[in-house]
Amino acid sequence: MSQLEAQEFAPAPAERRGLARDQVQLLVATDRGITHTRFHRLDEHLDPGDVVVVNNSATVAAAVDAVSDRHGPVVLHLATPLDDATWVVEVRRPPDAARAVLDAQAGDRIDLVGGAATVQLLEPYPAPGSSPTGAGNRLWRAAAVGDPLAVARRLGRPIAYGYLDARYPLADYQTVFGQRPGSAEMPSAGRPFSADLVTRLVAKGVLVAPITLHTGVSSQEAGEAPQAERFEVPPATAAAVNAVRAAGGRVIAVGTTATRALESAVEVDRDGPHVVPASGWTSRIISPADPPRVTDGLVTGWHDPNASHLLLVEAVAGTQLTRRAYTAAAASGYLWHEFGDSCLLLPTSGRSQGKSR
Q1: pLDDT digit string (tens) for 268-317?
Q2: Are 174 and 141 within 8 A, CB to CB?
Q3: Can you give the residue range of the structural domain that contains 47?
Q4: Is 331 exposed, middle or buried (0-12, 13-18, 19+ CB in 10 A)?
Q5: Are residues 201 and 151 in the same domain?
Q6: pLDDT tens across 126-135, in order?
Q7: 70 vs 73, 91, 99, 250, CA distance in Å?
């Protein structure tokens, strides 16, 4: 997607740029064309009987200053706690975590600020040579002494990268749906929703159904496949999605996280695919080669061309519609990344096409 060379990164949350969070730009892409609007008008593009599936994971402070015994000052990103009490971590260059430390080694000791916790790198995660560039290992499994998450709660900050113009508080990294703390990085597709917009959606007859997926650290810069993540699809959401599909409504996932969780709870029998309650770890990678079974549309931000998330977008919307949307967004100055603008992709080539608009 060469047109993405024109992308601009959002340097700050919408509210810090003089906008309400639901006033960011929204590009609506269908097979009939492209519409440019604002996010607070999302309800105009959905129908009564549709269901919007949202991620209720809340963002935690997962970045903390630290000192490596080999590299000196670093920024440690606490990506994911594992079931064996070890952690997936990423070591990045200070002060703004703009670049990963790719020459870390097993045995490196990293002391978190305040001296209340230490981690020791054990082995590359999920395996040696996981970086597709071959430049080194970005993610590590690490043993912890003390409670690194408690240190991060007290002294840490949200994970952020060098394209932001300042550090912003954890409250700026929460969505209106965030109820269950656990995401290392914000499930950002849900950020532009406001309480008013949700109320108007519900009043129109659009269902809003939650799932939980606790995100790890972003894999955009390295082009890596998504790592395994904790998720839950509760019984009420499974029942709502199945009822909407049976009635001919559309299932609109808010973000790649909601799509991944929902599609990880799909079973297929002689009557076709249906959603079942499910929880645990998902390693499902949705792509055009392994497309979604129940997701008809997608609300999403804008992803870098080497991001694995972009394959999921293409799997939902189709390659041609995705390309048209990205071309239009780049030409119109849409903003990328977690505080940027949004897109609603509504292909008419999926299961729920019978509706005219």
Answers
A1: 999 999 999 999 999 999 999 999 999 999 999 997 766 667 889 999 99
A2: no
A3: 2-59+167-346
A4: exposed
A5: no
A6: 877 666 555 6
A7: 9, 12, 17, 53
